[in-house]
Amino acid sequence: MRMRALLMVGENRLEMADIAIPERPANWALVRVRASALGLFHQQMAAGMIDTGGLPRILGHEVVGEIVEADSPATPPPGSLVVADAVVGCGVCEWCVRGSESICPWMRHLGIDLDGGFADYALVPESNVFPLAADTPLDEAVMLSSALPAAVHGMRRSGVGAGTRMVLSGVGSIGFTVCQVARAMGATKIVAADVAADHLAAVAPWADATVDVSGLSPAESAEALREALGAPHGADLAFEASGHPSSVDTVLHAARPGGTVLLMGIVHGSATLHFDDFLFDCIKRELNIIATFGFTRADFLLGNALYESGALDLRPLIGPTVPLEGVPEALAAIAADGTGGKRQIVQVAGD
Q: Which one in 73, 181, 283, 345 has a CA-CA gap of 20 to 30 Å to 143?
């Protein structure tokens, strides 16, 4: 049997191809892909910024589709709508045993160094598929595959809970989701900062205040965040989601003594955590500086439960829908103009 696939064959070179449906290994499920997603990360992948483990490669780490075939009786039956966790740990090492497969030294990733969802069919470990209600809108289901579990993972690592006062720097699709998840997990006051007015307007319903930090230095931005939070000594949790060095400096100075700084945004290349006085600005303040990367299967369980409860509104994250063959043109547009803080939906199946 054959399938359509969008192959990355070189840097910024993606081509439609007719290829064989891959053979299913034991304990993997064959999934008929119905939808995937498109964002800045995919543009970076296509540009060759991230190692694909060889070419050609089928990109698309968000996979929503229907089970075709599997082995385990615990896997949802054929025809079930599922969302896939793209992180494939080795399953043997101490990190996988702890449930931290996202930092497994032997971890592989669908749509990065394993073939992903930009094709009619995809292979997914049976342990990595999660059932969804049959009437789940596909565009919302796609948000459950990456943006939501990443936000849940970051919030779980941060220790957010009842009474947490939080500032967020960077309101893209992840930052927007972080605000909602933090609120659902108990945060009582949230202040969001960005340099884009449309991003701040989109997140306003889920934040107590927003701050436009355009033209401000990191020290000025941190002061503005503390003032908006009503916490002159700083936030319990300062979350960085933009990946800009100035934003990292902002959250380092926006946290209270003994507070937590959580770094999620990706700063490309070398980076330095800057303190004017390391002893007094960092050590004496006993800052908890934590990084977060990706997500685990446990994050899908919590994220999907929050979504199904109605606690989250994912609609504002959703951008335009493009057909599979329209992905190269859409990626070029993202490279030129950005994403506007949204994830585009890739319609793979024709129905």
A: 73
